[in-house]
Amino acid sequence: MNASGSAGGRGSAGGRGAAGAGRDGRGIDPDAPAFAIAVAAELAGMHPQTLRQYDRLGLVSPRRTAGQSRRYSMRDVVQLREIARLSAEGLNLEGIRRILELENQVAALAARVRELESALADELLNRPGRRVFAAGAEGEVVRLPTGTRIKKSNSVVVWRPFGSR
Question: How distant, in Å, are the alpha carbons of 61, 62, 95, 138, 152 from that of 76?
C-alpha cells in the first residue's frame, strides 16, 4: 500500500484544493493552520505517526494550538506530499530535508528579487529629471536637461582619407 496508496492520495482532491485556493483567491489561506493531524495525514496519504516523525525531524513544522495539538496548513500538506514523492524516488530523509531547505531558500530569494525589481521600477518612474544624453560636436557625451534638444548643424564636412589629395 505504501507506493500505490500514497500515489492515489497525492493525486486526488488535495491537489485541486491547493490550486483552487491560490488561483481564485477564495477558499482557505495556504498558511492557515486548518487541519488536525488525522485529516492532514489522510490528505497527504500517510499515517499520522509518520507526520509526527516528520515534525520531530523538522521536515514539516505544523503550528500548535493552545493545547499543543498539531494544526497543519494546506502548504504543510503539499510539503508532506513532496516528501512522500521524494522518498518514493529513493532519497533518504536527510536528503529530503536538504532539498526542502534549498527550495525554501530559492523561493525566499525569488520573492526578494521581485520586491527589489518593484522598488527599482517605482524609483525610476518617480525620479524627476531622468537623465538624457547626446553626442557633442567632438563626439563626447553631453548631459542634457530634460525637455531640451541639441541644435543640429547644417554644415557639410568633407572627409579625406590620409595620404590622398
Answer: 8, 7, 18, 65, 66
- Reduce the DSSP state of residue 71 to 3 states and report it: strand
pTM of the model: 0.56
- The helix/strand/coil state of 9 is helix
| DSSP SS3 for 92 | coil
| Cell triple for 152 | 543640429
The separation between the first and the last C-alpha atoms of the chain, rounded to the nearest angstrom, is 94
Cα 55 from Cα 74, distance rounded (Å): 15
Q: Which of 161, 158, 142 is nearest to 150 (CA)?
A: 142
Provide the CA 5 distance to its chain's centre, in angstroms: 31
What digits encode the pLDDT tens for the residues 58-78?
Answer: 999 999 999 999 999 999 999
Domains and CATH numbers, the chain: 2-97 (1.10.1660.10)
